[in-house]
Amino acid sequence: MNIRIFNSQEDLNEAAADLIGGLVLRNPSAVLGLATGGTPVGIYASLVRRCAAGIVRFRDVTTFNLDEYVGLPKNHPESYFSYMRKHLFDAVDARPERCHLPDGSAADIAAECARYDGLLAQAGRIDLQLLGIGHNGHIGFNEPDHALLSGTHVVELKPSTREANARFFDSPEQVPTHAITMGIGSILKAQSILLVARGADKAEIMQRALYGPITTDCPASLLQTHADLHVYVDTAAGRLL
Ligand code: GLP
User: Fold this and answer.
1) What is the pLDDT of residue 38?
2) Where are the domains of the chain?
3) How far apart are the CA of 66 and the centre of ligand 1, in A?
């Protein structure tokens, strides 16, 4: 496990963008696993700047997002599809047909999960999976449970997760109750994983995830079993590491 603790958000963003951008430079047709939420915004902004400066290209990159809300139309401002367009896809030279997210508005959600797993299987392997972490240790939307699923599936969001994400919506009731998420098996299959956390409110869960028991009560703790895990945190989130 490679843990790096950064004094500034900017340094963290640049280091994470170095890791992702460096991979894309070495392998222009890399497969990236991408995350949403507040955590990766500055990392994407750095990648956008690098692309504008001609340092990195996304033309041949394939991307898979971790998750999507169920029931939001794709173009809803808070869908993860809209998030990714705003923060990355529309601002770089990515090709839309190579940028995959689960479709939370699909009429047949089970078929949509199977379609997504089919696309992942076709891609072979994710070269680098970017992850944030929920306060309860969720990764993607794999919430703590007595058992975790390997493949893409629907989850009911915990009230605490809906509360945490209410900041992005006009009112808490508007946060969807369900989401489609890539499973833990797909996440752990990635060649390399970059887990990022910021802020004092993530310090305890980061300690549990990295040094606590490996348990489905804290899905991020399964990352301890991964052979190439990189953890980038700011000093606040890394206080207990
Ligand atoms: C969200 C997403 C996760 C994300 C996590 C933390 O709900 N589904 O992919 O990593 O919760 O979010 P944030 O970065 O906003 O703290």
Assistant:
1) 96
2) 2-234
3) 10
Other Cβ atoms less than 10 A from the Cβ of 2: the count is 11
Which tens digit of pLDDT belongs to each residue from 172-203? 999 999 999 999 999 999 999 999 999 999 99
Query: Which residue among 9, 34, 36 is best mutated to probe the pocket of ligand 1, counting the most ligand atoms within 8 A of its Cβ?
Result: 36
pLDDT at 67: 98
| Average of per-residue pLDDT across 122-151 | 96
Distance 139 CA to ligand 1 centre (A): 7
Instruction: Report the C-alpha gap between 47 and 30 in whole angstroms.
Output: 15
Q: Atom 11, ligand 1: which residue's CA is nearest?
A: 134
Report residue 6's pLDDT band, with 50, 70 and 90 as the boundaries: very high
ipTM of the complex: 0.96
What's the CA angle centered on 82, arms 49 and 103, to 5 degrees? 130
For ligand 1, residues with CB inside 6 Å are 35-39, 66-67, 132-134, 140-141, 161, 165
| DSSP H or E stretch at residue 117 | helix 109-123
Phi-psi region of 223 (alpha: psi -120 to 50; beta: other; left: phi over 0): alpha
Q: Which CATH architecture has domain 2-234?
A: 3-Layer(aba) Sandwich (3.40)
Contact status, residue 128 vs residue 190, Cβ threshold 8 Å = yes
Q: Chain-wide mean pLDDT for the chain?
A: 97
